[in-house]
Amino acid sequence: MAGKRVLIAEDSSVIQNLTKKILVIQDYKITSVKNGKQVMAALAKQPFDVILMDINMPIMDGMECARQIRSSEDPDVANIPIIAITGNARNYTMEDFKSVGINEYMQKPLDFDQLVELVKQYTEN
């Protein structure tokens, strides 16, 4: 687990900072971005073990970003586990998430114990 890389894509600074603090305590290396376009740029620079992605972000939302990640020609990028974080404002179902390649989703407000468990589950391989 030590040194596993987590990409947090979240436009809310409060949620981003809380998530970051909790995962840093767990010894994860964190990179934070605010929209899907920045996710794609970060993925082009370095590998990540898991992505925590807000669905409702400016510029490129989480659903479109997940589609682009899954269609990447780089298998290391295309297969990164994606955990969606959403207030589910648009009432997506798990089937909607699965259809774009999202592995799991968490409802806001976040249960940070559940978040840590999910991140561990997807990074222990």
TrEMBL record:
Response regulatory domain location is: 5-123
Keywords of the record, alphabetical order, are: Phosphoprotein, Two-component regulatory system
The record's section on SUPFAM superfamilies has: CheY-like
Query: Is-annotated flag, keyword Plastid?
Result: no
In its keyword annotation, does this UniProt entry include Signal? no
A biological process from GO:
phosphorelay signal transduction system
Q: Which residues carry this modification: 4-aspartylphosphate?
A: 54
- Identify the PANTHER family for this entry: HYBRID SIGNAL TRANSDUCTION HISTIDINE KINASE J
Protein's name in the database? Response regulatory domain-containing protein
Q: Per the UniProt entry, what species is this protein from, by scientific name?
A: Fulvitalea axinellae
